[in-house]
Write a structure and sequence with these properties.
275 residues; mainly alpha; Triphosphoribosyl-dephospho-CoA protein; 2 domains
Length: 275
């Protein structure tokens, strides 16, 4: 076993390592990994994003730029391939963690976000070209949203509070990164390496309806995924069969994948061994 809790590993490098470890672990039911792609998004697109975002992470680590600007610039830096959105949710979690240094520091960073951060966040979201089935008051596709943000003086934290009931990544901003911390604890509990990553992902799938699935397919499908994960854990279904079912139906637990990346980032900083 080896530890990444070393002065030679910067926070930026640790974030990149977390992104790489998440996408190459397999099988993660429904998500892209080294064993399967989606028609328009491939493993290479995720790995390219992991590499291309490095300068933005380094700026965050040096304390340069606002959180909103950094999130937008991360999307711009990684939006150079044809694979669409790969890591938007992960950037929302990693950038405050990199800037703050740890969970406590990240919470302080989040508390200090501004209206301008909220505006640039919406600019970043528009660049992802993600389109969801639900319509919210602060709709990224509505030009009036920016005016609403400024009129109501809503900070980026306010936006995340608004989104938290429907978005588990936003919820991490409001609850002290609770699920991120749980994931890090599960990684330590399951041991080292790829098997621990898969076991942790399955644990999260078995307890948390993924809000990305809810937005794309509805709450019933998200609850089905929870039940399938529980059946795998109980020995009533194989992990491979669960994975095949999700892939065939286009069901990808993208929000939990983003949270798993943040969990890996925290675990790596605590000395969790990935190899």
């Amino acid at each position: 076993m080896s530890s990444t809790n070393s002065p030679s590993i910067t926070r930026s490098e640790r974030a990149q390592l977390a992104m790489m470890l998440e996408v190459t672990a397999y099988p993660k039911p429904g998500n892209i990994d080294r064993c399967h792609d989606y028609p328009s998004t491939r493993l290479e697109h995720f790995l390219a994003s992991t590499i291309l975002v490095r300068p933005v992470f380094e700026r965050a680590e040096r304390g340069e730029g606002s959180i909103g600007d950094l999130i937008r610039d991360a999307v711009k830096a990684t939006n150079v391939h044809g694979g669409g959105n790969t890591h938007f949710g992960a950037f929302l979690l990693l950038i405050p963690l990199i800037r703050g240094g740890d969970i406590t520091g990240a919470q302080q960073v989040i508390q200090q976000t501004t209206v301008d951060d909220a505006v640039t966040f919406y600019e970043a979201f528009a660049l992802t070209r993600v389109r969801m089935r639900d319509h919210q008051e602060l709709d990224v596709n509505e030009p009036a949203t920016i005016a609403t943000l400024r009129k109501k003086k809503l900070t980026l934290l306010d936006v995340m509070r608004h989104s938290a009931p429907r978005d588990m990544v936003a919820r991490e901003w409001t609850n002290g990164f609770a699920l991120t911390c749980l994931g890090a604890a599960l990684l330590a509990q399951h041991g080292c390496g790829r098997n621990a990553i898969i076991a942790t992902f399955l644990d999260l799938l078995a307890t948390e309806p993924d809000t990305f699935i809810i937005k794309k397919h509805g709450p019933d499908v998200a609850q089905e995924v929870v039940q399938h994960a529980r059946e795998v854990k109980g020995g009533l279904q194989t992990l491979a069969a669960f994975d095949e079912t999700c892939i065939a139906r286009g069901i990808n637990p993208g929000s939990l994948a983003d949270i798993l990346i943040a969990s890996l980032y925290i675990a790596l900083g605590e000395g969790w061994a990935w190899d």
